[in-house]
Amino acid sequence: MSKTYYAILGITPWASEIDIRRAYRDLSKLYHPDTTQFPKDDAIENFRQINEAYATLSNAERRIAYDALIKFSRFQYTKNQTPKNLQTNDDDGLPSERPLSGGELFALLLIGATLVACLVLAVLLAWLRGDPLFPEAIAPISILWFYFQ
User: Which of 24, 61, 67, 145 is the most buried (most CB within 10 A)?
Assistant: First the structure.
């Protein structure tokens, strides 16, 4: 078996029914023999494969049988056991689901710190220019706040 039905549709084996339907719709628009820019023979073959993959994966019973055929189980991992291919690609070339790496978490931290620094800088510049920190509409409330401290 050269490519799995999941690889043909460009989805992971954990894809939901909505993801399967969306991938099928996008690919069928791209490879439909009447509307494609690809050569007619290639378009017909790709369209046939896409329809076959969708027919199998959209039916729950057929999908379970197909998953057994390719030896995939959504329930093969326990809570304490992580999949072996967590950080790598599967055999079909699609990336597997994985947690964020340390570098990705650090990048998110930098983005958040930049946002906070920009907000502090904007308030500091407004204060140094003498701009009112509170609009006139809420100024009476802010004055009361200073009295009750």
Answer: 24
∠ CA 65-71-77, rounded to 5°: 110
- Which superfamily does 1-99 belong to? DnaJ domain (1.10.287.110)
Residues 146 and 87: their CA atoms lie apart, in Å, by 54
Of residues 88 and 56, the one with the higher pLDDT is 56
- d(CA 72, CA 103) in angstroms, rounded, equals 30
Give DSSP secondary structure letters for 11-65: --TT--HHHHHHHHHHHHHHH-TTT-SS-HHHHHHHHHHHHHHHHHHHSHHHHHH
User: What value does the mean pLDDT take over residues 51-63?
Assistant: 92
DSSP-derived secondary structure letter, 89: B
Asked if pLDDT for residue 145 goes beyond 70, the answer is no
Mean pLDDT of 60-88: 68
Does residue 21 or residue 93 have the better pLDDT?
21
Number of CB atoms found within 10 A of residue 125's CB: 10
